[in-house]
Amino acid sequence: MSVTFRMLFRQLLGGAAIIGTLAVSGCASVQTTQSGTVGVERTQYMSSMVPEKELEQEAGQQYSDLIQKAKAQGALDRNASQVSRVRTISQRLIAQVGAFRPDAANWDWEVHVLSSDEVNAWCMPGGKMAVYTGLLTQIKPTDAELAAVMGHEIAHALREHARERMSQQMVTNVGLSVLSIATGVSTDLGSKLTDVMFTLPNSRTHESEADMMGVELAARAGYDPRAAVTLWQKMGTASSGAPPEFLSTHPSAETRISELQAASERVMPLYDQAKGKK
Predict the structure, then answer these.
(1) Three-class secondary structure assignment of 78-109
(2) What percent of the chain has a predicted confidence (pLDDT) above 90?
(3) Which DSSP string corresponds to the chain?
(4) 3-state DSSP call for residue 208?
């Protein structure tokens, strides 16, 4: 085989590898949730390199490790009344997830309260949740305001925003994907999940969707959806106008408040209906 032919053959093989990688990592359109009353209808794209079930398993393992660590440090569910309050609210919200995706009602939901001064809350893929005591003690939310926070975080999980962001990273890092396939090294879902959950901020689009869906979940659960507005105002006051990291990606408090007010008015009939059932 001549040198020229060998070079051409290698180039063809390299091109085939790249095309194969694009086929594998390329994102397909999916519909993670129904649009709901608030009308969240954006088409999403997910990579086959970030399988939903594998990501949920990884999230479950990371959550278990985190909970065990918190327990060892004496930071897990220390205040019984706080835990009872958080779980009561979460149960009412979870009971409404079928409005957006019926399969989520069968997730292995779990929620704990972690002792930390950080003003934060989150929900991992598959329904693994945590609320930090800093949120409860510094913001002092009403039940309806706490429902707005938790509904927001649940919405991120329902829309699979973590998986979507990881998929976008896969396509962006095509070169790394080629190397992964060539060397037989599997994609490190664990580190990427940690990045998108706890390091990198959410996009404005994802935050807006979580806001809208969170308001609807709260209304359906019988919590005044307008509390999302007062929550945001408290957040701004408590942090001198700079919101906590998990609420920091909107361009301004005014924009967010305007969007939340509009969404709240749209779902008020759902709230009135839920109140009538009590």
Answers:
(1) CCHHHHHHHHHHHHHHHCCHHHCCHHHHHCCC
(2) 63
(3) --HHHHHHHHHHHHHHHHHHHHHHHSEEEE--S--TTTT----EEEETTS-HHHHHHHHHHHHHHHHHHHHHTT-BS--HHHHHHHHHHHHHHHTTGGGT-GGGGGS--EEEEE--SS--EEEETTTEEEEEHHIIIII---HHHHHHHHHHHHHHHHTTHHHHHHHHHHHHTHHHHHHHHHHTPPP-HHHHHHIIIIISPPPHHHHHHHHHHHHHHHHHTT--TTHHHHHHHHHHHHTTT---GGG--SS-HHHHHHHHHHHHHHHHHHHHHHHHT-
(4) helix
**Which tops the pLDDT comparison, 3 or 124?**
124
- How confident is residue 172, by pLDDT bands cut at 50, 70 and 90? low
d(CA 142, CA 135): 11
The model's pTM? 0.84
How far is Cα 51 from Cα 19, in angstroms, rounded to an integer? 20
Torsion of CA 210, 213, 214, 220, to 10 degrees: -170
Distance CA 254, CA 5 (A): 64
Q: Region 177-198: what's the mean pLDDT? A: 62
Q: Using DSSP bridges, classify how beta strands 128-132 and 121-124 pair: parallel, antiparallel or unpaired.
A: antiparallel
pLDDT recorded at residue 192: 79
Rounded to 10°, the helix 204-220/253-276 angle is 20
- Point out the residues that are catalytic: 153
